[in-house]
Write a structure and sequence with these properties.
The protein is mainly β. The protein has a single domain, classed as Beta-clip-like (Beta Complex). Helices cover 10% and strands 30% of the residues. It contains three helices and twelve strands; from the N terminus they run αββββββββββββαα. The protein has a three-stranded antiparallel β-sheet with strand order 3-9-8, with no helix packed on it. A hairpin with a 4-residue loop joins strand 8 and strand 9. The longest helix has 8 residues. It starts with a helix and ends with a helix.
Length: 159
Amino acid sequence: MSFTETIDLDLTEVAEIRTDSVTGFRSLFSKKSFEANEGVIGFMARATYEKPNYLTVQINDDVHIELFPECLECINHSCNPNCFFDTTLMELVTVRPIAAGEEFSFFYPSAEWDMDRPFKCHCGSKDCIGKIQGAKHLSAEALKKYRFTGFIQQKLASR
């Protein structure tokens, strides 16, 4: 059985995309409540690339994937994330409880070593780290606050 046959890719019961009428930016919002450390949905690679782009999640030094289902690319960054892309299990999981109607967010450096498009964060969190560039650029203090993919953990351990 292939991976595509073993995961549920229907997000209609758990999430919806909302588009900001002013900016045109898309976000993914929860349609139900989740407990901490709960699986939301499995995912797979829609496409793979050797170099990062703004839509990818890093799997190893030379593999960056675009997510499928595609709506997962609407999960925006936050320095106070509520979910995490577990690239070992290939599952979106919660890192804290999520209420119905809450926007899904993840910490971009948790799954990217050196980002293609660094940016100044405006998440509004009291713990905002400012410039988002990838795990490679995080302070020792910031590293203690977040969950990282297996690949990023390996990179951090070897630096």
